[in-house]
Structures are given as C-alpha cells and as structure tokens.
Specification:
445 residues
Length: 445
C-alpha cells in the first residue's frame, strides 16, 4: 500500500488517494481465484479444475478484481488512517479510480473524522438548585394511597349510580337496529370515571338505578382503533346489575400496624416525610446536573458530521427495539400500531441524539483539557465490581464491554463530576426562568 496523497476537503472530511502495487494486487487476485475456482466449471474441465487464464478469457479479465480489491481494502485503509492518525467517526466511502494488472490499483477514500471541539468557561457554570419543601398535604397524599389500597367495596341499592362507583353492567351496542360485533357484555365490571369505555358512555350510566333499562348514545372517536367503527353513532342498551362504592378506612394506629411495618401513624408519617425529603433532594440534584449539562451543550458550536447524529439515533432505536422485545412486541408491529414509519420514528429521536452527541464531545474535550487519566487498574476494579454484581468473571464481562471504551466512559464521568463540582448554585429568578424554558423545550421534544 502507498498513501499517494491526503487532502482535507472540508472541516471534518479528509480525502485519501491510495495505491496498491501490482504485485500485491496480483497476489490478492490469485488468492480469490484459488478460493472460487472450486465453484466454477468450464466446458472440458471438471469443476474446480479450470485454469485461471481460461476463466478470465471466458468471463473477462476483471472477473476476480472486485473481490480481490475488497479483500485488501480494510487493511489498506486502516494503514493509511493510522499513518495520518485520523480519528474516524464513520466508515469511509471508497471510489475505484483505476485498476489493471500492470499498474495495480488506485482508489479514493473519503474519511469523515471526529470534530475538534472548542470549549471554554465550563467551570463555574451557574444553575438553579431548589429543594422542594415537603408539606403536610404531600404527606396526606401518601397516606391516601395506603387508605386506597385498604379500601373495601360497599354495595348500595337505595340510590342511582354515581361517578366513582363500580357497577356490574349488561350492555349491547347497535348501529341503527343492527347489533355490532364486540359490542355486547354481560356482568361487566366498570368503574364510572375510569375512562375504560368510549367518551360519554360512563357519564350516561351515572344516574341510573339497579335493574333499570336505559340507552346510552355515543359517537365512536374518529381515531378509534377499529376503523370500520370510527366516527359512527351507536346506541348501547344497558342494565345495571349492582352498584358499589369504595369506602376508605380511617387512618389510625390499627390500620398502620396491619398495613405497614410501623406501629403508629406518627411513625409512619415521619418515615413518609424522610423519604419525600430524600426524593426532593435527589430531584433537585438531578435538575442541577441537567441544567449544567444543558449549558455545556449550548457551548458546543463546532461543526459536527451528521453521520454522528445518525449513528446515535441508530443506537437509541436499537435500545428501544430491545425494550420492546422484553415486552413481547416487535418494532414493526409498534410502528403499525402507532401509524409511524421508520423515518418518523428516527425524527422523534433526532433532538435527543443531537444533544447527546454534543454533550459527549464537550465532556471528552474537557477530559483532554484537564488531563483526566484513568488507569488500567481502575478500569479492572470498576469492571470487577460490575462483574460480581452480575455473577460473572472479569474476563467474561470484558467480552461484552471493551476495556478501552469503558476507560473513556470513566474519563467522561470524571469530567462530569469536575464540571458539576465547580458549578455555582444560582436560585435567582432569572436563572429559574431559564431553567423552566429549558425544561419546557425538553418536554416538547
């Protein structure tokens, strides 16, 4: 291999002209011939016995050229990239410029390289960090949950059904005078107000009594999952079989003893407060870090190759696909249900991918500027801890997590801690408004 020339054609693009000498090329062609000849049969020769010259005469001189070049390309390009110390972020695109037996091969490889990020003022970033004050109302909301879990259903027969009641219902749906498939139910339990049925149905059941025959008139939503029903008017003939309401128990020491590990209401409330306060601190800490990281992202204005965003989107979709598989669903079925295609799904991840790529580049640059180092021993210690938690050996976990990549991740994490430790808490109104705007934009994405 010979690197004939290199030329930086764009900010993150380098064009290489690579030559492969005639002898190297001839050797590769001969290897491909030896590999493929056993599948080639020419008239007058047994399969695998046809001479190379006759095969080339029959199919053309370049019959083995493409496979020969492809067999050489990885090593040739790797050698050129190593010589120039290029840090590639995508597979090079290759164009064949010339090829013949006498002069060998000349090709062009367009390489997209990792961008050089410029970042400053990453220490002393200002960000809000307000810990939510826990109120008695917050505690009462938690207590309501345990009352809800221990509620009992009480049957009533002296009043009509109300929203919030649970009824046992018979119903049958009609389009005009014709009953439709899937519109009939007997002894069906329904919590009025749960939204289990189509809009307007449950509200019309409320106000009717046990054994009363009544009609419910509804219109199926335009977006109803069964397209043949979408937008149609229907009438459901209904009868309530029973009505029950949920009775919440009184909160007292006896309930707390039966339902929790505590003996008194006061002990339980104290535990709730402690947990809510801890959660509030963690939430404030997470918000503080997110605000700092968003500030770092905003500082990255260097040109970034689009392929880096696309590859990050690939990773996010692969992770989503695996999550779907864990829930026994396939990605193509998910797209069908949601009415999306792969392009629209990729678009939903684009803003997130842009932010994550910019943040990673910023943190890697900070680790370089701060000369953050991670030793092999530190990598092994961290991977060993992970391996033990998953009942694996160190060697086994290294098969799944390359040590060098993990070392870079540890550097990035230390860069995060450095930036975070140097950040300044700023709870001014201006800072809080900026944080609210950032959160609103994130939610919109």
């Amino acid at each position: 291999m010979s690197l004939k020339s290199s030329n930086k054609t764009d900010v993150n693009t380098t064009e290489l002209i690579i030559t492969i000498d005639a002898d190297t090329f001839e050797s590769a062609v001969e290897k491909i011939y030896q590999k493929q000849k056993k599948t080639i049969q020419l008239k007058g020769f047994r399969k695998g016995k046809a001479p190379r010259k006759l095969i080339e005469k029959e199919y053309g001189e370049g019959v083995f050229y493409e496979d020969a070049i492809n067999s050489l390309l990885p090593a040739e390009i790797d050698s050129a990239v190593a010589e120039l110390k290029l840090d590639l972020v995508d597979r090079p695109s290759v164009e064949l410029l010339s090829v013949d037996k006498a002069n060998g091969v000349e090709l062009k490889a367009v390489c997209v390289t990792k961008p050089e990020i410029s970042i400053s003022d990453y220490k002393g970033i200002k960000a809000p960090k307000k810990v939510k004050e826990i109120t008695e109302e917050d505690i009462e909301n938690q207590i309501y949950n345990i009352r809800k879990k221990n509620a009992r259903l009480v049957s009533v027969d002296d009043r009509p059904a109300q929203m919030g009641d649970e009824v046992i219902l018979d119903f049958e749906g009609f389009f005009g005078d014709e009953a439709f498939e899937g519109g009939k139910g007997e002894d069906h339990p329904l919590r009025l107000g749960s939204g289990q049925f189509i809009p307007g149905f449950e509200e019309q059941v409320a106000g009717h009594s046990i054994d009363e025959d009544f009609d419910v008139n509804v219109t199926f939503p335009e977006t109803y999952q069964m397209e043949e029903y979408a937008g149609k008017e229907a009438v459901f003939k209904c009868k309530i079989k029973s009505i029950s309401f949920e009775e919440l128990p009184e909160i007292n020491d006896d309930l707390i003893k039966d339902a929790t590990e505590f003996n008194t209401v006061d002990e339980y409330k104290a535990d709730i407060r402690a947990k809510l306060e801890e959660a509030a601190k963690n939430q404030a800490e997470a918000g503080f870090e997110n605000s700092i990281m968003n500030s770092l992202i905003e500082k990255v204005d260097s040109p970034i190759p689009n392929c880096m965003y696309e590859r990050r989107i690939d990773s996010l979709i692969n992770a989503f696909d695996q999550q779907l598989h864990q829930n026994n669903m396939k990605l193509d079925l998910y797209l069908q249900y949601t009415g999306m295609d792969m392009d629209s799904l990729r678009d939903t991840y684009r803003e997130r991918a842009v932010s994550e790529v910019k943040l990673r580049l910023a943190l890697e640059k900070i680790a370089e500027l701060e000369n953050i180092q991670v030793t092999d021993e530190e990598v092994d210690a961290s991977l060993t801890e992970m391996a033990e938690a998953n009942k694996m050996s160190l060697d086994m976990i290294k098969r799944f997590i390359p040590a060098e990549e993990y070392k870079e991740d540890m550097k990035v994490q230390r860069a995060i801690e450095l930036v975070k430790d140097s950040a300044v808490i700023d709870n001014s109104e201006e800072s809080e408004n900026a944080e609210a705007d950032t959160a609103e934009n994130t939610d919109a994405e």
